[in-house]
Amino acid sequence: MTRLFLLLLSITLPTLAGVGVVVALASGQVAVQPIVLGAAIGAVLALPVAWMIARQLSS
Questions:
Q1: Are 41 and 24 in contact (CB under 8 A)?
Q2: DSSP state of 28
Q3: Sequence spans of domains, the chain
Q4: Are 35 and 18 contacting, i.e. CB atoms less than 8 angstroms apart?
Q5: pLDDT in tens, 2-35
Q6: Using the 8-state DSSP alphabet, how is residue 27 labeled?
Q7: Which long-range CB contacts under 8 A does 10-14 form with residues at least 24 apart?
Q8: 5-44: b or e for each residue (b if 16 or more CB lie within 10 Å)?
Q9: Under 8 Å CB-to-CB from 34, ≥6 apart: which residues?
Q10: 33-59 pLDDT, tens per residue?
Q11: What's the pLDDT at 19?
Q12: Which helix or strand (DSSP H or E) is residue 59 part of?
């Protein structure tokens, strides 16, 4: 399951980080800090998402 988790993480992490950046930009934030914060929040959210997907696929 660890390999599946890492594979899914390589897909979900950049996707959710990109969503965080798009949300920051769409809300009118053009400074660096909100954009980086949005990417970081998306990256952190990718961990449990990838874990849940891997758990569902492996069972």
A1: no
A2: T
A3: 2-58
A4: no
A5: 999 999 999 999 999 999 999 999 999 999 999 9
A6: T
A7: 11/50, 12/46, 12/49, 12/50, 12/53, 13/42, 13/43, 13/46, 13/47, 13/50
A8: beebbeebbeebbebbbeebeeeeeeeeebbeebbebbbe
A9: 24, 27
A10: 999 999 999 999 999 999 999 999 998
A11: 97
A12: none
Where do runs of H (alpha helix) occur along the chain? 2-26, 32-58
Residue with tokens 């934030």: 29
**Residue whose pair of structure tokens reads 């009118």 in the numeric block:** 28
Only one residue has tokens 């990718």, namely 46
Six token digits for residue 39: 């990417």
